[in-house]
What we know:
By secondary structure, the chain is α/β, with parallel strands linked by helices.
Amino acid sequence: MNKILTIVGARPQFVKAAALSRVFDASSDFTEVIVHTGQHFDEKMSDIFFEEMSIPKPKHNLEINSLGHGAMTGRMLEGIEQILLEEKPDMVLVYGDTNSTIAGALAAKKLHIKVGHVEAGLRSFNIKMPEEVNRILTDRISDVLLCPTDTAIENLKKEGYDNLEIDMVKSGDVMQDAAMFYAKTSEQKSTVIKDNNLAKNNFVLCTLHRAENTDSKERLQCIVDGLHQINESTPVVLPLHPRTAKMLEKFNIELNITLIEPVGYFDMIELLKNCKCVATDSGGLQKEAFFFQKECITMRDETEWVELVHNGFNTIVGASSKSIIEAFNKVGKQKIDFEVDLYGNGKAGENIVSAIRNTLNK
Ligand code: UD1
C-alpha cells in the first residue's frame, strides 16, 4: 500500500486536491492522509470547499495563517516535519505555488521522503512574485514533476531538468477534472445567479487578490478605475478576497461594483457559466474561464498560462485602466474556437496517480 500525504492550505489547492482524492480513493493500492496548514481559514475560504466537494476531512490542521512569509513558512515547516515523522508517508504531494507548497516540499525532502509536485513547471518569469520563488524551489526538490501543459515541460527542459534525476510527466490539469465533474451538479446546488439578480451573459466575473495588485496603492487604484468604467455599462461582480478587502480599507479606496462574499465552488462554476467574460489576477480562474468558454482579461503583467494568450482566449492588460477597458470592448467581437485540448480534458487525475505509482515503484 502506498501512503500519500497531501498538503493543502489555500483555496485553489482544495479544488485540485478534490480531483485527486477521488482517484486515490478508487485505487486499491493507495491510501491518503490530508494535512491542512491553515493558511486559508475563513469558513468561506476553506470549510465550504471540503463540504461541497466531499474532500476527506484533514487529519491534521496546523492552523497557521495571517503571518509574514518568513514566520508562516517557518512554522509550517516545523509543523509538517512533526507530522511526517509520525505518519511516515511514501510520498508528500504538494500543489501549486503557495507558502504551504514550499513548506511541505522542504519538510519532506529533508527527511528523505519523496515529493510530488502537482502544477510543476509553471513560470511567470517574475521572480518578485512570492509564487514564482515557491514554484522554482519546489520543482527543484521534487521527485516527480506533474506538469499540466507542454509549456510547463518546455520551461523545465530549458532549466536543465532533462539532466536531473527527477521524473517529469505531462499530466494535464486537475482543475479541468474538477470543473468537468462539479459542473454536472452546480446548477442544482447554487443560487448565486438568482440571489444577485444577474442576467445571463451580461455581467463580468471579477476576482482580485494577488499581492502585486493589492499591495500597491497605485496599481489597485488603476484597476478599480477600470472596473468602475466597465460597471457603467455591464455589472461587475467581485467575490471579495480578505486580502483585497483589507488593502482597499487601508488605502481608503472605494469600490462601487457588485461586491459579494467569497463564493464556494458551485457558485463559482455558475458565475463562470453565466458571465459575459472574466477579469482576474488569479491563475486558476484564467483556466476556468477557458473551460467554460469565456474570454478572460488578465490584470497582471504576465501569465503562467501562455497557451491561453497564444490561442486568443486571454488578454494580458496589467494594471492599466485604459488596457482593461480596451480589452473589455473587444470581448465577443472575434470568433474564437474554444474546442482545443490544452489541459487534458479531465484525465489529469488518472495520469498523475499512475505517474506517482511509477516513481514510487522505482
Ligand atoms: C495565497 C497564495 C497565492 C494564491 C492564493 C489563493 C502565497 C504566497 N500566496 O495568497 O499564491 O493564489 O493564496 O487564494 O502563499 N485571509 C483571511 N482569511 C482567509 C485567508 C486569508 O482573512 O481565509 C487573510 C490573511 O490573514 C492575510 C491575507 O488574507 O492577511 C492574505 O492571505 P495569504 O494566505 O497571505 O495569501 P493569499 O493572498 O490568499
